[in-house]
TrEMBL record, chains A, B, C, D, E, F, G, H, I, J:
Its EC number is 5.3.3.4. Pathway: Aromatic compound metabolism; beta-ketoadipate pathway; 5-oxo-4,5-dihydro-2-furylacetate from catechol: step 3/3. It catalyses: (S)-muconolactone = (4,5-dihydro-5-oxofuran-2-yl)-acetate. Homodecamer. The keyword Aminoacyl-tRNA synthetase does not apply. It comes from the Bacteria. This is Muconolactone Delta-isomerase. Residues 1-89 form the Muconolactone isomerase domain. Keywords: Aromatic hydrocarbons catabolism, Isomerase. Belongs to the muconolactone Delta-isomerase family.
Length: 96, 96, 96, 96, 96, 96, 96, 96, 96, 96
């Protein structure tokens, strides 16, 4: 089941560098683990911003929320979720 | 080079069925040709809407505009374009 | 799996009464069939508007899109979809 | 009488963990008490966000405001209220 | 029970004058009947617009929706509804 | 002369309780004095929010601004002002 | 009493030229009459648009509404009204 | 050359009174000097807000920016600029 | 004097092809004449849309409005104008 | 390849002057270096604001993001990116 999720990060500008680096490192490790598990299929950076566009392939909405609310940067994020289905014009059988 | 494009179609509700079917068929053929050429990498339907979310992988912006403005449904579309780059947390080397 | 869907209907004001009555009757029959099947769990009217707020309990997003895009009034609707999960404060085990 | 209420919580990111945990615990107890009283009929989490969608069944608007303004997290909330009525297509007699 | 309702009328500019005059006359008669019944407590024109701001005092939401959806101009209206309660600073016991 | 004014209060969440209580008490006394003078004709609370909807009947705009900018909570408010006139459908001679 | 009014005109693109020219001529005559009466103190065109920014000096809101709703182009206009008062930094005694 | 400029001031609510008074005094002196020079032709307060609506008559855009960016309150302002031209319906030859 | 202007064209979808081709040809000739005169310094197409971003270098606002309101497609356009000045970081002496 | 980028800077009002001056100096040096390299083709100030409108000519999106995310003021910026292509009405062969 596919979802597009756009995440915009707003870190406080006065956050100590050490703390910012730590939380970003945790975020990266967390994201890569889930990508390697196949649930976080794509993650792109929106050019010129501190936002990412991601495609999630998860078994259900609970799992999506579990992943997103577990992001270390979640408290600093504005998140928009769009549920996707295969497009009738897609040449891919499943286009997951 | 990757772009995310969201296309929302607003066909006039009083468009004759025949004309609507024709233009949709042309749109599908056009979209599948470009997908098979590898430039239109993903196309998903946003659930509950007449919008699609697509990922284009094109050589430059001119080509992107050529594809989009050549869509049979282009005159009936609202289009938003976001340029994408590889995300530092992506586990894919290029994340095409 | 739960989704909240808000549907706002904009029928052309010059639509012949007969056609409007027909399409509304089809919409009602369609909606009641799906409610009776248990997938369209709640449908309320937003007071003072021609919008409804609905809660769908479907097996996946494909089914949600199938239901929504199959609505007779779909071409006349603006639709917003929000995926829901059980709230940690809910006293209902599943709150479907 | 039914109302849909969407509540988005914005806790200050620098709120001490102890204080945040306390206020969330109070919020949960408060919400469960009212759910058990039958006035807070449904509460769902909007996936990927710190928002909830709730359906209240209260005797009047005063009671709704009393409940909402009494929420421990009220000072940190953006709240949108939509009054609901039974939909003519609902298969439920009252669709409470 | 009090509601503030803002109604903005968008009559098609090509509506025949006769039809426009008729529907406005019906609207006025309808509105005055409900005002005289005490349910439509205030109606003001927002200066410079074709909108009105009204205060309704009705027994419940069903009645509010019944009144609003029964307005002859309802199909041409954009309507916003805000449920009101007595303000703690009001010097009026009930502020009807 | 009538104006509708919507006032939304955003007190800093870290404002000391004592200071918050003082300023609210001053606000209440100020508002009741002007209500008793007949200029602040109605004040309602928008259910579920920290906003009020008020109807002012003042001799001119200067007086309106004097009242609003003199509110103790003015620095913490977002204010929207709509000038009103008697509606042609009003059954009240003046509905001031 | 001063009001700033911004008026944006949206004439139907298929309005016959003759009808458009007539209504614009009536609008101009109407506007100049009120300017000469001193109530319509300023009217400027917002560069690049079909909008005007005007300053009205009228005895009360009723008169403002009378003028605006009497504009021949009123049915084709989106209008925003802002009540103004003398600014404390103004060097003009009254800044009419 | 005329510009309409709307300036909304957002002073931090925790700014010491002394500092606020000083910067406002500087702002007033600055504004009055430019008014007396004839470049800042009108300044009005938008009733109920901490915004002003101003009409500038300057030789070019550079001068406009020089004035606005030199305002003592500039760092605390949201500013919107609209270039104006004489309206064809204006009875004033130049309506400066 | 520089202005950035964003023009979005909304041609009626049912405009006869001949009429659409004619008006576009006129628009192109008009735009190229003004470019060659040096006043319309840049015109780009916003990829994926029927909008252009242009930089005008004109003697004053009147001339800007004259050019824009003279565009054959003006009645079908939504236009946004931003006055520009040289940026302090520009390496061009005059990049006006 | 051309992009229009609009950057709005929101420096904290309580940033020490020394720190603000330093970061602005770094920003200026950074911007001028890239302008001299030919990638940052135009930079203008939007009159009355702390925003700039820039035209970038870069080899691809990666380079655009590299430049923008490397701006010393990047953490304090809201950025909007629009990909541009040559306009069919442009008199410049390449006004890419």
């Amino acid at each position: 089941m596919l979802f597009q999720v756009e995440m915009t990060v707003n870190l406080p500008v006065d956050m100590p560098e050490r703390a910012a680096a730590d939380i970003k490192a945790k975020e990266k490790a967390y994201a890569q683990e889930i990508q390697n598990a196949g649930e976080w299929r794509h993650i792109w950076r929106v050019a010129g911003t501190y936002s990412n566009l991601s495609i999630f392939d998860v078994k259900d909405i609970d799992r999506l929320h579990e992943i997103l609310s577990g992001l270390p940067l979640f408290p600093y994020m504005a998140i928009a979720v769009k549920p996707l289905v295969r497009h009738p014009s897609s040449v891919r059988a499943d286009d997951s």
